[in-house]
Amino acid sequence: MRWIDELNGITDADALAKDLKKRIRTLRKAEPTPDTKRETRRLYGELDRLQFKPDYMCLIIDRPKDYRRACKGFSINGVRYRRLLGTNGGIKNSTIVFVSDRLWPELSRRIENGRMADVPLVTAKLEAYKALTCSASIPVSMPHGILVVPDAKTEFLADYVYLTDENDGEPTATMMRGEKYELNASDGFGLMLPSLAERWSRELGLDYIAGGYNTRMSWEKGMLFVFDFIEFAEKVAGTYMVEDAWGNEVDVREVEAVFTTSMIKLWDCYRSCEDYLVKSAENHYTFGVTKVAPESLENERASNLI
Question: Are 292 and 206 in contact (CB under 8 A)?
Answer without folding.
Answer: yes
